[in-house]
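Example 362, ligand zinc ion.
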Amino acid sequence: MVYLHSLIATVLLLTQKLVLSVVGLVAQKTSIGVIVVELKFVSCVGMNIGLMIFTLTGTILRTSMPKVNQATETPQYLRPYEFLGLELTYKAGDKDAYADCIYCEREGKMGIKVETGQFRCNVCEEKGNIRVFMQKLQELSFEATTTQDYKELAANRKLYTDETLIHWQLGKSILTGDWLIPGWNVEGKLTGLYRYIKNGDRMMLMPTPTLGHHLLGMNLFDKQCAVLYVCEGSWDSMCLWETLRLAKPSGEGYVATSNPQASLLADANVIGVPSASVFYENWCDLLGGKTINLMAQNDHERIHSKTKKRIAPASYEGMLKIHKMLLQADHPPESVNMIFWGDKGWTEELPTGYDVRDMITS
Ligand SMILES: [Zn+2]
């Protein structure tokens, strides 16, 4: 595992240093498999923006994409509370819905205004809006989550250490028992909670309805760092974050380190976007003046079964759009790099959805 982390760290450091020439890199056999990595620079795109192309071959897995929950008859301002697990007593025409208070635990004493979504407990008098509620729910859930819970999720998500989940402030909801992944705005304030739940036959990050999307990992963001990795989804982001944090340069290569200040993460941030197709304009502010590495997934191109029209590879297309937005931003990045998994931006040699976490953990 340490070797694999060193391998990916090597790849990533090369990205950081903007190596602009063909680089042949390791082909190593480990007890778990063979990974061959080649890097080659392909073209410069506009201004001082470099586009770096990676070709990778390795092995398998699949990750998921979030979707916004649309269908419900619950009034708009009650929907987030309901989604997060409050059992609401409410009927059409009521001005207030009632639920058990998450502060004092008194049954049915938390009133929520149907017209505004403001809550207030009739007993402990705690009050606020949905953001205040989510902050408290996240805090209580985080505190109630056990070491065993973290170990199980880390194993399930193939993370190197359960400490990563604690750093990213995941908690098991005290209301539903599902994992909650906090979403943040560019100031690092909690603005949403994602539930990691089953949607159809797959586990997905589902955003709290009516609140839009949010950045992942912003609680750890350090403005001073020159490099910023943008991953798709939470697990990919966490896996890359912990890998950078565990590796440091040493002589001819990279070695494991327990000192984050000496690690590859010392001058880098890793943030997650919920999907490559979701990127808000104000997020560009965060990326200005920095070296940005867009870590796309290897989504395959598809053909629509009825219209026979081409459906573009989602992650690749999404990251290209982000790249264009960054180019046009008032305060553009110093440079932007992007992973390509093949000549077309993706390759059939790897499964669709294959990402950095798959490469690190395979
Ligand atoms: Zn109360």
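Summary: The chain has nine helices and 19 strands.
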